[in-house]
Design goal:
88 residues, mainly beta, four-stranded antiparallel beta sheet, 39% strand, elongated, binds zinc ion
Length: 88
């Protein structure tokens, strides 16, 4: 009889993607999502997130990030978000 009850240590696949300074981070960290207005949605993060605004091409670091048509590939700063709404 072999009671091979081996409780091996499972390989910890903890991929800690914690990045220190403002690299591109997924929108999964959004703590609040505002109503979509004219195709643009504004998200608020718990902490400032670094990204490049698709519209004004500026490197931003902010808690507020906007997306267009639900696409997470393109991120916009809240400045461009406000501008978009004002001229819409
Ligand atoms: Zn912008």
């Amino acid at each position: 009889m072999d009671s091979g009850n081996q409780q091996g240590v499972e390989p910890t696949a903890l991929a800690h993607g914690a990045q220190k300074n403002g690299e591109h981070e997924p929108l999964a960290q959004a703590v609040k999502t505002y109503n979509t207005r004219d195709g643009w949605t504004l998200h608020r993060f718990a902490s400032a997130t670094g990204f490049s605004c698709t519209r004004c091409k500026k490197r931003k670091k902010a808690k507020l990030v906007a997306t267009q048509d639900g696409s997470l590939g393109n991120l916009y700063c809240n400045g461009c978000y406000g501008q978009h709404l004002s001229i819409a």
